[in-house]
Amino acid sequence: MIDNFALGLTHLLLAVGLWRVLLRDDLDLDPDDPVERPRIVQRFRRRSRDDRNARTD
Amino acid sequence: MIDLALTAFVFAVLAAGVRRPFLWVLAYVYIDILAPQKISWMLLTHLPISLIAFVLAFAGWAYVDSKAGSRFSFRQGLIALLLVYCGLTTLFADLPEFAAEKWSWVWKALVFAVFLPLTLRTRLRMEALTLVMVLSAAAIIIPAGIKTLASGGGYGSLHLLVNDNTGLYEGSILSTVAIALIPLALWLAREGTIFAPAASSKQDWRVKVFAWALSFAAVLIPIGTEARTGLVCAAVLVMLSLRDMKHRFLTMGLLGAASLLAVPFLPASFTERMETIGDHQADQSASTRLAVWEWTLEYVETHPLGGGFEAYRQNQLSIDVVETSASGNTTAIETERLEDKGRAYHSSYFEMLGEQGWPGLAIWLLLHGLGVWQMERLIRRYRPTSVSPPPQALEWVAPFARALQHSQIVYLVGSVFVGIAFQPFCYMVVALQCGLWTLVRRKEQAAQVPRLERARFRRRLLPASTPAPQGVAEGVA
Fold first, then answer.
1. CA A4: distance to chain centroid?
2. Cβ contact (<8 Å) for A3 and B128?
């Protein structure tokens, strides 16, 4: 009972945490890094362009 | 039901790694700490999930992940050197069969320790790794803490998730790791961004409650397992924490009062066992330990390069246990001689010395000593002061470095009494330190580029005979 509670609680938190991590761009690219900043801007522009295209479609 | 849920969780994380390969690294860390294949009794027990996760993690990094910002640090080199050296001592081990058995898991821990920092390129990755480490260990610590509260536990009688006595499921190792985990859990609660509410810099109160409850459960582990090492580690952590507190004496007074109030509620067996900390002669376990350490020092006189893994199995010890009994004005002292053999080192320092000799111990000490020093440098450089606050993007560095340093010092203190020189959890802390050190160095070097360019530009403007101004020279240096 206690073991199941602890396993359930920690795995729920792990699942939520990993899901949130999965959705964040800064997992792979550091937004404060001057070396990587251009790639982030590029990715942001690409995503905005895709959104615009989706709206016009 | 639990079996199915665990299996589903493992496969879900592995599947999510297809989108973000770093999740495979986290999956390996989770499997390495919690060992869900030991909790499960169906599918997971039949699959080499640890190997699958490692292969995926490495392949994901090698073929998909960006290498921008990845650096091979000096400390990774030290781990690689230790790996090679351990391989050599295994080849020439005194007890080749036993040595090969330990080598079979040590090399994996060391290879992963060399690899892990290469993947820790961003702050979020380090935070995610810390979160997975904390929550995976929490799955063992929380039930153990609750059981201690309910029953009081006992030496060797506290039932953990798995009745295995290896890895984190061994009482003394768990009590050390549980205490070492507290700074990381509290850092996540204060500075973490994964569970922070969107568009807010303030932490969710639920995160803080969970972190403090987990820390309380972690403190209960030394009581539940009656591992004296854990108590020493907890005392060291309190002392380390006082360094950064504003009201040190008040806190010390409150902690002292709280400890005194807690004593009546502690199990009698726990207080009796803790009383033996100061009197090693009356305690067989402590006397044996000292005898093994003495044997190790004698052993390395003839084997300075170490005897390979599990070399301790050759020892034969004679231990004098002194028992004192007082009746009235007379005190009777009885000395009993015990014979023992094949006793483990019960200390990481002597484990390294006996198994890997002086070179192995030197590499291991350098690896950890450098970690403490590097974290201290980061703390001092990025500590917020009224005179020079750190740049906003690097405000998290000093608290994280402090948490990692405290965690490592607790581990190093616990290592005096427990043989955990190759415990994978501790190498994950080392990997986080390497990742943080490399990330900060990269940012510092990137920030220096404009200064260098400015200096070069000014030098071009000045005639060749004119000496460079003081500021420019400093900028170049």
1. 29
2. no
